[in-house]
Design goal:
The structure holds two protein chains of two kinds. By secondary structure, chain A is an alpha/beta fold. Helices cover about 55% and strands about 10% of the residues of chain A. In chain A, a hairpin with a 2-residue loop joins strand 10 and strand 11. In chain B, the strands form seven sheets. A five-stranded antiparallel β-sheet of chain B has the order 1-2-29-28-27, with no helix packed on it. Classes of the chains: A alpha/beta, B alpha+beta.
């Protein structure tokens, strides 16, 4: 959580460990080599090692692994840095066998992040290229995004675990937590909410196994670990973002702590990559503010910056001048540039928000959270569907309605779904089916579908969860508009901590 | 008197201590055996040699017996292989028997066969003349001399790589003597040919190295290397012992024994003296030509140690060693060393004499040196009484020191405790302090384990406070491995015994024990043992090795490591028939979904089959729907969708049936229209299709689609409005708005106009809009002024505020107006 606090464990150590590991792996090929990166690893890698480190260790060219590309040019040694996915393995196998057929001689290495999977080896074997590659693993799991935020940057976790019931990433989560504890000391108290969290906890214990007996807690820098399943609360992520950081993510997309501003923000051709962290003072101040308060802060900041700049006119002696130029000027200039970006981003967001039906959507959301005006909300969503409003937003509202009502009344559900399919295409029948399996978008009809054991398990888990309505009442989650916002922010941050 | 048994040799002393009275007395006559004793107080192997008792023709097979150093029998066996040339012990206390065909057989000390390897084809073909077992830098090495006078060498019995050493030029007969020399991490052989010595290596090089001697030498008939390989003793045909450095650069001493008989054994006693043995006569020769002579009642066997020589005879086991300097300091008559004084002081003190004080005063400044000397000397003592006396002296001295660190004292006490324990005749490892320090405690414990003295080993670990991980639990694991080899006990008993003793001791790998059991062919026991293994990653591969795949699968699932599950799963799939395989995994949800996952990427058809078998029609249908997108031809696509529809029908999912049906219908419509209008419609949604049709002014088919798919009124209105807006058909739009009462409200029309920035058209509709909606609509198209007026007309302060909110900096005039209006409204009230 980004609240100012006195002491944080030094999570940057994680970075150093992985960086060394990477360097060793790179040096296992002597001389020049090319690096092929999977696109979703680019930003995480950026956080660990810059281009200069790669260059230092003999990386010549860096390619992005593009599924449509059948072969890559480059020198005679190549390293793939990829997630251990089956389809990626197939793609790499295609590259290798294609190049072999052309008679190109190359040394290949595949580094899997964060670990090597047997099934990947099997696929390489199946494709007949197992003998041509060496395999390695890079334990790049938790990435320190800020002094107080670590992230696995594993966006596919949700889909694989909750929808496909594939536990492959649980191991990674457990392993990463063990790694973290190895660096900064064992965490004495661990709390779990949800099925997945419990599994992570069990897995952690079984990996640690016997080591646990004589655990030394004296070195601990983190007192409590709280593991929360995403499926405990779907309501929060379905609500619209209201904080500055949230809106930045919605408008531009924050990836591994980087946000990229294009022409509309900077006014320049070249896009600007900005790192968002507590090191950016301005951002630190506004990240968790309600968006409506952000602009005023930024303008104040601009004024105070200006006055700092103006100080130069009042400087008396040469010494003061020297001091000013040496220390303050650079800092001020930097701040100015950053501030300009934030203001630009604000304007873009503001433009988007006022143009669309943001206010109306917020209102609809709020009434859903309060559990009132079911009819109006259904009508409103229908209208959005009819107007072919942005599909994500429509679906989000639809899901929110289902979550807050513990399912949409059967008749309306059918009609909404039909309209949805008519409007956005029949392929979304599967989308709806998946959402239904996850229990995010359901009707109120009792479950009569024949389900196999796998989904039955999922359903059981859903059944156990307290319904939103009753939880809402018991915990008094929604009181005023203000409270809703706070609730939203709080949960968001906890989730990020995981 | 402490010095009574000291024998002077030049200016140093040698001393002989009895270690054991041999347990074999009266049963063994060493004369009849070939003896091989391991260094560091290791076991002794006796080989009943035919050649020594050749007077009677023996037809029975030779016997090998292994004893402890105290002469207690450990094991015995009848030798049934070929002719043994040499026996010796490896550094892991394995008995190595080298046969004349170059085969090396290794046994543990219980004479269980371990392994066998050859010394090469040539050795096999031409027979081995002589053999040397030596300590190399890699472990224990073996060198053989063939009857063609070539030497083959291996540096480690664990990794037997045979190398041939260079040939000695002009060697026509067997060398009169030879030895293996280990220097600079390389093993070379020193071969005597007449009066010349050759150093040969495996690089094919030889060096002629002849020492500078005063006496004339015809032949070197015996040679011995010191324990550290730095010194060499040579025995010549004329009975002269030459003591020189092993590189033969320096000759330290030439000693004439005046016998021409070749000694049975020639070896070093530490590095200070050479010992030669002729039957019952033993001579110790020092570098200064000093000598001591010992006579024995019966022939004895010598064992070279790093700090002395052990003498094994029929009745006794003795240790000959140089009296260490520090011992000499303390016990030498008239010694004024601090240690000697302290020792005296301690004795007087215990006698209750005041002289103690006098002695202590004399060495007041050197008390620390004195204490250290006593401690050190205690380590070199073999008799416990003397150890005690010396340690007592040390503690006494310690009392007078204020900040003396007790560490050395405590360590020495511990070491001595261990040494005395293992030296006990029941254990029979007569190791000295120097040797133990060199060998390290860990190896000592290993050696106890090798002797199956698990209890003592554990006690030792506990006494030395060695962490369980590397101490007790390791020993327990060894014990368990030994236990599972006991064939006479049944699986259940053993498994229970092992589990009971090991519990969940940290650092014990049940997996290792289980694989040991498996090696002994006890699969059931192995499975039982594996149950105790907490780490699934270790269990699973072993279970798979035992082809207990099902069990492996469930263990893998328990572990929560999906990779492990995959490993088993894919092996299972290869080994089993598909049908059986499906049946096997259907009750394991995790395995099942993992396999589905695999199929999704690798074999979609199999995924469908799986669902089909499971009667999971919805999923099957979903697969088909996904597949339909890959079909290129419309007919195929519709066909696949139809199949999906059937599946949905079977799943009684009417909604999905209807939707799929509609989808097929829509696809066909789209195709037809593509042909008709020559424009692309494929894969547009229904909404989009109708929209496009209206924009392109094809109202008829649009209407048809509306009817066919029962598009609701409201929706159609929205759709048509927007489409007309986009097409710019304002007249048509107006006509449409008037066709009947719009179900969506006229505001929607305003919205469409505002979207396409047609203010004039919008105003038309605003005129028709209900009064209470007017302000919002006007705001939507940016007519703030009109909006304000409308709001004023409505007498609505609320609406005025709404307008006010929208006003920016540019609308100063308007803001004032609105304020005025508000005031007016307020005033009116």
């Amino acid at each position: 959580m980004s609240a100012p606090s006195t002491h944080f464990p030094n999570v940057q150590k994680i970075r150093d460990v992985v960086r060394n590991e990477l360097a060793t792996l790179l040096l296992s090929f002597k001389g020049k080599k090319d690096l092929v990166l999977e696109s979703d690893l680019m930003k995480p890698l950026d956080r660990i090692a810059g281009a200069s480190l790669l260059k230092q260790h003999g990386v010549d060219k860096i390619f992005k692994l593009d599924p449509s590309q059948k072969s890559i040019q480059g020198c005679d040694q190549r390293i793939y840095l990829v997630r251990p996915r089956m389809r990626t393995m197939k793609l790499i196998a295609d590259h290798i066998s294609g190049e072999k057929n052309h008679g190109t001689e190359r040394k290949y290495k595949i580094i899997m992040v964060p670990r090597k999977l047997h099934v990947c080896e099997m696929i390489l074997e199946h494709e007949g290229v197992f003998g041509d590659v060496t395999l390695d693993e890079l334990p790049l799991d938790l990435i320190p995004l800020d002094r107080d935020i670590l992230s696995l940057e594993l966006s596919e976790f949700f889909k694989t675990f909750y929808l496909e019931n594939d536990h492959v990433w649980l191991h990674t989560v457990s392993k990463s937590l063990i790694g973290l504890q190895a660096l900064i000391g064992m965490i004495p108290n661990i709390y779990c909410i949800g099925r997945g969290s419990k599994m992570v906890y069990d897995l952690m214990n079984s990996i640690l196994g016997e080591k646990l007996a004589g655990t030394d807690y004296s070195r601990n820098e983190i007192g409590n670990l709280i593991l929360i399943d995403r499926d405990v609360d779907y309501v929060t992520p379905l609500c619209s973002q209201l904080t500055y950081e949230g809106l930045l993510d919605e408008a531009f997309g924050i990836n591994s702590g980087y946000v990229e501003f294009g022409l509309d923000v900077t006014g320049k051709e070249q896009s600007v990559k900005l790192m968002l962290s507590s090191e950016d003072e301005i951002f630190e101040e506004v990240r968790n503010r309600h968006f409506s308060h952000v602009f005023s802060y930024l303008s104040n900041k601009a004024k105070s910056l200006q006055s700092d700049f103006d100080k130069r006119h009042t400087l008396k002696s040469v010494g003061d001048m020297k001091n000013y130029v040496a220390n303050e000027l650079k800092n001020l200039k930097n701040q100015k540039a950053v501030l300009a970006h934030h203001i630009g981003a604000c304007e873009v967001i503001l433009g988007k928000k006022t143009k669309g039906d943001f206010q109306e959507i917020l209102q609809a959301e709020h009434s859903m959270l309060e559990g009132s005006g079911l009819k109006d909300n259904i009508n409103y969503i229908e209208e959005l569907i009819n107007k072919q409003h942005n599909i994500t937003q429509t679906l989000r509202l639809l899901c929110l309605l289902s979550m807050t009502q513990d399912g949409i009344p059967s008749k309306e559900f059918k009609s909404l779904k039909t309209q949805f399919l008519h409007s956005y295409g029949y392929e979304h029948m599967l989308t709806c089916y998946n959402l239904k399996r996850l229990g995010i978008l359901t009707d109120q009809e009792p479950q009569a579908l024949p389900l196999n054991k796998v989904t039955a398990g999922v359903q059981a888990a859903i059944g156990k969860r307290g319904s939103y309505k009753s939880l809402c009442k018991r915990l008094a989650l929604v009181n005023t508009h203000e409270a809703t916002n706070k609730y939203t922010i709080g949960i968001c941050n906890i989730e990020k901590g995981i | 008197m402490a010095t009574a048994d000291w024998n002077p040799l030049g200016d140093v002393y040698f001393k002989k201590n009895e270690l054991y009275a041999m347990g074999w007395s009266d049963m063994i006559d060493l004369d009849k055996f070939t003896v091989a004793a391991a260094p560091y107080g290791g076991p002794i192997a006796l080989y009943r040699d035919d050649s020594k008792t050749a007077r009677v023709q023996v037809s029975t097979k030779p016997i090998i017996t292994v004893f402890t150093a105290a002469g207690n029998q450990i094991s015995q066996m009848r030798w049934s292989s070929g002719q043994v040339v040499k026996m010796g012990w490896s550094n892991t206390e394995d008995l190595l028997c080298v046969q004349d065909d170059g085969m090396v057989l290794s046994y543990d000390m219980f004479l269980n066969f371990k392994r066998m390897f050859g010394m090469g084809q040539e050795a096999k073909d031409v027979k081995v003349l002589d053999c040397e077992i030596f300590n190399s830098f890699q472990g224990t090495g073996i060198a053989v001399l063939t009857s063609t006078y070539r030497i083959f060498i291996i540096n480690s019995v664990d990794d037997p790589r045979i190398r041939r050493l260079a040939e000695v030029p002009g060697l026509q007969s067997a060398p009169s003597s030879w030895a293996v020399l280990n220097l600079d991490r390389q093993s070379r052989a020193l071969v005597a040919k007449g009066n010349e010595l050759f150093l040969i290596d495996h690089g094919g090089q030889y060096q002629n190295q002849t020492p500078q001697t005063n006496t004339e030498v015809k032949e070197y008939i015996k040679m011995a290397l010191s324990f550290n390989n730095k010194f060499l003793a040579l025995y010549t045909d004329s009975g002269v012992i030459l003591i020189c450095s092993s590189d033969l650069q320096k000759v330290y001493c030439e000693f004439n024994t005046k016998t021409e008989a070749c000694p049975h054994q020639l070896m070093w006693c530490g590095i200070g003296a050479v010992v030669a043995m002729w039957g019952t006569l033993m001579v110790v020769v020092g570098p200064q030509k000093d000598w001591i002579r010992y006579n024995f009642e019966s022939p004895a066997h010598l064992v070279q140690e790093m700090d002395g020589t052990r003498i094994i005879s029929n009745y006794q086991h003795e240790f000959l060693h140089k009296v260490p300097e520090v011992t000499e300091h303390i016990f030498k008559i008239g010694s004024m060393e601090p240690g000697a004084m302290l020792y005296e002081a301690s004795r007087e003190f215990h006698k209750g004499s005041q002289k103690a004080d006098e002695y202590i005063r004399m060495i007041k400044d050197k008390l620390e040196v004195a204490v250290n000397q006593c401690i050190k000397a205690a380590g070199f003592e073999i008799e416990t009484d003397k150890q005690k006396a010396l340690l007592r002296a040390a503690t006494f001295g310690k009392c007078f020191l204020t900040d003396y660190s007790p560490e050395t004292f405590v360590n020495m006490c511990q070491m001595l405790r261990v040494i005395n324990q293992v030296r006990h005749h029941k254990i029979g490892i007569p190791i000295t302090y120097t040797q133990l320090e060199h060998l390290s405690m860990a190896v000592m414990i290993d050696r106890l384990v090798l002797r199956k003295m698990f209890h003592l080993a554990i006690k030792l670990c506990q006494y030395l406070k060695i962490p369980d991980q590397e101490g007790a639990s390791r020993i327990l694991a060894h014990w368990a491995c030994y236990k599972v080899k006991q064939k006479n006990e049944d699986d259940e008993t053993i498994a229970r015994a092992v589990a009971q003793k090991l519990g969940d001791t940290p650092g014990v790998s049940y997996c290792d024990i289980a694989s040991q059991a498996l090696e002994c062919g006890r699969t059931d026991l192995a499975i039982r043992l594996l149950d105790f293994e907490p780490r699934a990653a270790q269990q699973v591969p072993l279970l798979m090795k035992m082809s207990k795949d099902q069990l492996a699968l469930s263990k893998a699932i328990e572990s929560g490591d999906t990779d492990l599950v995959y490993t088993v799963l894919l092996k299972l799939k290869n080994d089993m028939k598909d049908g059986d395989f499906f049946m096997a995994i259907r009750n394991m949800p995790i395995a099942y979904s993992l396999f589905i996952q695999y199929c999704r990427h690798q074999n979609p058809q199999m995924m469908e089959d799986l669902y089909y078998q499971e009667d999971n029609f919805v999923e099957e249908a979903n697969c088909k729907v996904v597949k339909s997108f890959d079909d290129e031809r419309l007919e195929d696509r519709c066909e696949t969708l139809k199949q999906a529809m059937n599946c949905y029908a079977r799943a009684k999912n009417e909604f999905a049936v209807k939707q799929t049906d509609d989808q097929i219908k829509l696809l066909k419509y789209q195709r037809r229209m593509e042909e008709e209008f020559n424009r692309p419609y494929m894969d547009l949604s229904l909404h989009q299709t109708i929209y496009r049709l209206i924009v392109e002014n094809s109202h008829k088919p649009a209407e048809q689609l509306r009817k066919e798919f029962k598009v609701p009124e409201r929706r159609y209105w929205w759709l048509r409005m927007h489409a007309l807006g986009e097409a710019g058909e304002w007249a048509e739009l107006e006509r449409f708005s008037k066709s009947k009462k719009p179900p969506v409200g006229l505001e929607a029309f305003v919205e469409v106009c505002s979207k396409h920035k047609n203010v004039a058209e919008a105003m038309k509709y605003i005129a028709r809009v209900q009064q209470d909606q007017k302000v919002k609509c006007l705001l939507k198209i940016g007519q703030k002024k009109s909006a304000a007026e409308a709001a004023f007309e409505n007498h609505s302060e609320e609406e005025l505020n709404l307008v006010l909110q929208k006003c920016g900096a540019a609308d100063k005039q308007l803001v004032e107006n609105i304020r005025a209006m508000k005031q007016q409204l307020g005033g009116r009230r």
